[in-house]
Amino acid sequence: MTDPTRRNRLDEEQSPYLRQHADNPVNWQPWDQQALDSAKERDVPIFLSIGYSACHWCHVMEEESFQDESIASMLNEQFVPIKIDREERPDLDSIYMTICQLVTGGGGWPLSVWLTPDEKPFYVGTYFPPSPRGRVPGFDSLLENIADSWSSTEDRQEIEKRAEQWTTAIEDELESVPDQPGSVSDSVLDTGVQAAVRSADREYGGFGSGQKFPQMGRLRALGRAYEQTGRSVYREIIEETLDAMVNGGLFDHVGGGFHRYTTDRKWVVPHFEKMLYDNAEITRMLLEGYQLTGRTPYAAAASETLEFVKRELTHDEGGFYATLDAQSEGEEGTFYVWTPEQISEAIEDQTAADLFCDRYGITPTGNFENNRTVLTVSTSIEQLSTEYDLPAETIETKLEHARKQVFEAREKRVRPGRDEKVLTGWNGLMISAFAEGALALDESSFESDSAPHSDSTTDFAETARAALSFVREHLWTDSTSDSDSDSDGDGDGGRLWHRYKDGDVTGDGFLSDYAFLGRGALNLYEATGEVEHLNFALDLATSIEREFWDAEERTLYFTPASGETTITRPQELSDQSTPSSTGVAVSLFLALDQFVPHDRFRTIADSVLSTHASTIESDPLRCVSLVLAADEYASGFLELTIAANEIPTQYRERVASTYLPRRLLTVRPPSEDGLNAWLDALDLDEAPPIWAGREAIDDDPTVYLCEGFTCSPPKRDIDDAFAWREQNA
User: How far apart are CA 424 and CA 421, in angstroms?
Assistant: First the structure.
């Protein structure tokens, strides 16, 4: 056959990251059967490079090594070089990152792995410079040494022995399940939050004493524990962390949205890429923080972030793009940093320019490279009012006008690159954020006064609808041609693709795609009361049961049963940059159990928690999404059932202002006739208990509140329902 490895084949790919390497002299191959077969036929190792489009050190290694003709020649002649976009293949990234972490104690991207022709790893690292630096070997000499060892009979035997040992280690870490099930204790949430308290940086906010990453799962656990115990330290850590994130350099104070992480303890200098998943999860936590504390800066930052996503990460047809790059004009951060001179040029009023510089810490020396400044909130409005002898309201007005002018000036700069993949799971996360925004921000009464790019009140629910519609149209295949519903669990549900780009879809959906999108659809149903979104969430749960649930092993796997076979079938128990897909799936099953006439969803949730009880108990912070699901399993949801044609304004306002971490908001038609039409749409023979007998009283909107197997009497006034809750607490 013709050897496909004699040329670079990445020009055939849709992934922006892969296409960035299409002009390299390295004969890069996508991960496909042709490339894998070529390694076997040529009997040479695979060099596997995994990264993503916004990865800074991926760009560096490309410029230093993959553009080098001599290094490319060695890769082409002695190896089959394969390039993977980790966002397209999170399964392979998980497999090979696991061995990197086990062997080296760390990880990151670019991930560099050498494999035998049967895909088993035997050498691993991350970024390698072209020449030795300290203890890190040079990439050129490393390639030469590995090629020589592969050619030596004795050394190759050692390589193959190591590959077998490493593959076994990966299987033990990712695929195997405990021999004996257990039970998650009622104290696991407390154990987890105590660990979070110990790791909290009480001086600067966040967790740890080095680089600061968003850790939204930890904050969510702290909030839930505070709601249960009232311990002030839990709320304090939430506020300290959200304040640091909103005021520091992680947040884009000109255009909204959050960067990936900060390189320092004080939340000042970020890595500037903006990831869809970060902006989704941070927004959701800001909304919870707003409901918990009533602090409007959290609501404002959440609103601005949703506006940013609408403006800069939204496909014309409604789906959400994956990433904005950190670089523009070949430099990281150039789009986002400022000097005092640039501010004076952008702002017409010099007093306003001075105010802006003082407010956001823009100085001649700067806090970033070349005397430029990453904007942080450095001076309070009260201090500025005193220093400039102006009323606080005048200061705020001047700053807002100034920020609009800075935003307009920035729009003239060369923009960072955008990765225009639409990833199903990440869209699910963002749909949840917009749906929660539609509830928590209560747009009839709240509108950010600090969004220079907003021309009108945003309909967050409509944005979520459009995104879900996009995914359903382009990335979802119904199991039947004439019915959208398999909610009784007897059908297939349907199938998801993982990625859409320019009309092309690829990749079987992973558990994260189904679980995150299922939660997004459920959240959109809660926000709108539109039954089709609930119906879709039920279809997705049925598909999870079919493709990812293993009844014999009593676990959920990350890859579908009908998908590609790899050296191991991973599970995803831990939270990383995104929540654990297993934890989100378990929570989704528990919520949707309220709407189905069988107990399979709850049985799956119970079984998964039981199977992984020892893992959850041993490191609850690592498995925080599973901890939250276990808390929902033990305590149940706070059920708010609203019987009305639409959610009344008073109800929305109360939900918007009330912190309800285990909330399940369900809407049903006010009359039995209307409910029967819904039951037909859901293919249900009778009303589930959460709706049964809960009709509107005298045709007025009516709310039923249930918690701990106890329900309030029907209430027309939602405040009366919450008063009943407080009396019965």
Answer: 10
The kind and range of the H/E element at 323 are strand 323-324
Q: Are strands 261-262 and 270-271 parallel, antiparallel or unpaired?
A: antiparallel
Q: Beta strand pairing status for 504-508 and 494-501?
A: antiparallel
**Distance between CA atoms of residues 231 and 212, nearest Å:** 25
Taking the C-alpha atoms of residue 360 and residue 211, their distance in angstroms, rounded to an integer, is 21
Nearest Cα to Cα of residue 381 among 450, 302, 303: 450
Tokens of 532: 């089709």
Non-local (6+) Cβ contacts of 526 within 8 A are: 435, 439, 663, 664, 665, 666, 667
User: Hey, which bits of 40-107 come out as E strands?
Assistant: 46-51, 80-85
Distance CA 347, CA 358 (A): 14
Chain CA centroid to CA 8, Å: 32
Decide: 283 and 68 in contact? Cβ < 8 Å. no
C-alpha to C-alpha distance for 619 and 612, rounded to whole angstroms: 11
Tell me how crowded residue 350 is: count the other CB atoms within 10 A of its CB: 9
Cβ(651)–Cβ(701) under 8 Å? yes
Any bridge partners for residue 478, and if so which? Answer: 494
CA pair distance 271, 54, nearest whole angstrom: 10
Q: Residue 242 corresponds to which tokens in the numbers above?
A: 């959200």
Q: Are strands 710-711 and 702-707 parallel, antiparallel or unpaired?
A: antiparallel
Mean pLDDT of the chain: 94
Q: Give the pLDDT score at 729.
A: 73
For residue range 526-577, what is the model confidence (pLDDT) as tens digits? Answer: 999 999 999 999 999 999 999 999 999 999 999 999 999 999 999 999 999 9
Residues 6+ apart with CB under 8 A from 490: none
Confidence band, pLDDT 50/70/90 cuts, at residue 709: confident
pLDDT digits (tens, 9 = 90+) for 104-129: 999 999 999 999 999 999 999 999 99
Beta bridge partners of 124: 113
User: Which candidate, 125, 60, 52, places its Cα nearest to that of 84?
Assistant: 52
Q: How far apart are the first and last CA of the chain?
A: 73
Average pLDDT score over residue span 615-624:
97
How do strand 111-115 and strand 46-51 relate by DSSP bridges? antiparallel
C-alpha to C-alpha distance for 150 and 159, rounded to whole angstroms: 8
pLDDT, residue 491, reads 59
Longest Cα–Cα distance of the chain, Å, equals 86
Of residues 307, 313, 330, 290, the one with CA closest to residue 254: 307
- Integer Cα distance of 633 and 650 in angstroms: 30
Rounded to whole angstroms, what are the CA distances from 539 to 8, 557, 559, 666? 41, 18, 18, 17
Task: Name which of 92, 94, 76 is nearest 84 in CA terms.
Answer: 92
51 touches 86 (CB < 8 A): yes
Pairwise CA distance, residues 122 & 115, whole Å? 6
Kindly state the tokens that stand for 75. Answer: 């890769």
Angle between helices 232-247 and 296-312 (to 10 degrees): 40
Span 29-53, pLDDT tens digits? 999 999 999 999 999 999 999 999 9
Cβ-contact 521, 533 below 8 angstroms: yes
Q: Cα-flanking dihedrals φ and ψ of residue 597, to 5°?
A: -90, 15
Amino acid at 561: A
Residue with tokens 């009844």: 551
Cβ neighbours around 127 below 10 Å, total: 21
Measured distance CA(661)–CA(641) in Å, rounded: 16
Distance, CA of 331 to CA of 56 (rounded, Å): 10
Tokens of 611: 């199977």
